[in-house]
Amino acid sequence: MTTSARLRIAPLLLAAAVSATLALLAGCRGGADSRPSPPLKVDACQLFTDQDAQAIAGETLAAMSSTIDEAKGRNPLECIYNSGSLDQPRILSLLIRPHRSPSAARDFLESSRSALSSMSAGKVQDVKGLGDAALWVGGRIQQLHVATGNLQLIITVQSPDGTDQLDRARQIATRVLERLKTAAPKSK
Which fold is adopted by the domain 3-183? Predict the structure, then answer.
């Protein structure tokens, strides 16, 4: 990979690292319904398939992996596609972050608003009608953060021309939320 390709991918990796750090910090938070939720075994690439990514991107794409993936195996809580090139990536991804409880997921989403606003030059907005709560982070980040049950979904749809990708991220979120409903254990 060339140095210029690494420099173009660096902001994407920074956004993922910040999301992961914030998710780790959320483990210390609790709420009124802070009872641990039963683990839900999901695979991000089954919730957001390559067919989904290709339909939304409208062009060919490739799954992305890292040297860590190659050494340890793919993390089932993330699925990353690139419909661009290494020089001009166009990332479409789903990252799933489980939280201790539904209130912890919502609290984390709200508490991360300030940091996300700083990273995106203030381009954070609430998104109605997705999950229990959702935020769109525009600017250079282009991520949709959705709290649903005890999960946080982080959907990234980036475009090399910088156009807003909320509509495409919403399409991904809708498909993922529908699939999660069928994967959830039936309550008695």
Answer: Protein Transport Mog1p; Chain A (3.40.1000)
Residue-wise pLDDT for 130-169, tens only, equals 999 999 999 889 999 999 999 999 999 988 777 889 999 9
Look at the alpha carbons of 125, 129, 134, 137 in this order and tell me if their dihedral is positive or negative: negative
pLDDT, tens digit, 9 for 90 and up, residues 29-50: 444 455 555 556 889 999 999 8
Domain layout of the chain by residue ranges: 3-183
Q: Render pLDDT for 58-97 as a digit per residue (tens, 0 to 9).
A: 877 766 666 665 667 788 999 998 888 777 788 899 999 9
3-state secondary structure the chain: CCHHHHHHHHHHHHHHHHHHHHHHHHCCCCCCCCCCCCCCCCCHHHHCCHHHHHHHHCCCCEECCCHHHHHHCCCCCEEEEECCCCCCCCEEEEEEEECCCHHHHHHHHHHCHHHHHHHCCCCEEECCCCCCEEEEECCCCCEEEEEECCEEEEEEECCCCCCCCHHHHHHHHHHHHHHHHHHCCCCC
